[in-house]
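Exercise: predict the fold of this chain.
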Amino acid sequence: MLVRNASKYGASGLRYARSISTAQSWKFEARNNTILNKFKDIEEIEAPSKLAQESSLPVIEQDLKTKPRQPSKKLPFLSDNKIENDPNYQMSGWKQKIGQVLIKAFSIDMDKSRAGPVAASIYFGECKRQGLYYPNEPMSDTAKFFYETLKLPKSFSQQYQIALLHYWMLSVRMRALPHKYGKNYQQKLIDRLFSDMELRMSQELKINSNRIIEGYLKDYHTQLIGAVLSYDEGLMTDDITFAAALWRNVFNGNPNADMRHIEALLGYVRSQLYVLNKMTDREFGFGKFAFVAPDQVVQPLTKAQEAALKEKVKAEFAGHNLPSQRSVLSVDE
């Protein structure tokens, strides 16, 4: 696919995505009449944010009954760990050499080991940042889409629902990986999401009772199960079912929710799934995916573009010769 108006992807403003393994992916692109497939013959596809802004209906704020508790402090985005927080951090040369020797000597399964830093750090950060909000601080473009364009309430629970939606999209792709690896990636990601919520409730929201925090976590876990089941049903059926799932979960079942806003979010989700559907197992397993911003347009790839990108991916990973870069994940699917 092509992602347009994406300055962060280079001067051309275009980014390509790749192809996915279909062995366990439910063949969701083939079995579902997705928004992208519907629009294949239309030259201009609107970005989700633009689609949502076309609505002229009056905004009726949802009554949350209670005023959401706002954070009193801000924790580091990922953690205090310098390796995780500093993208430019490099281990000393001798430590790297020892690590490579140990990996080779003990035949460590790097695809299994890689799930920690990729799923519990890179993809956790991707899920968290999409709906992250702090009072009196500028919001990211994606957060503005959810809170300003879609008019969702600025609350901790809403941040969780947004993160949960993005977790589910990643989990769809993780389920397409070989089972023992995909399951590991899912578990690492969800464990990190919940441990982060527990920490934020304690330190940012100043909830001092462990019993109350545990109660919230149980509620969030119940919401997770319900949301995943409803999103899966929408993925395997039709857009009406999918839109209803988004309305119940992300829009909190708000009877005054704008239908154009729900349609825009559905387009946003379908676009992300298409990008994920065009990535190889190895690209995804190495943490190469990033969510497409809602002000960008995803367009289907031609067969020639897909073939060219597959060759580019193979060339990139052909140079990964260190023991720590070993992988059995496919560069074809």
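Check your answer against the key: Strands lie at 2-4, 15-16, 297-299.
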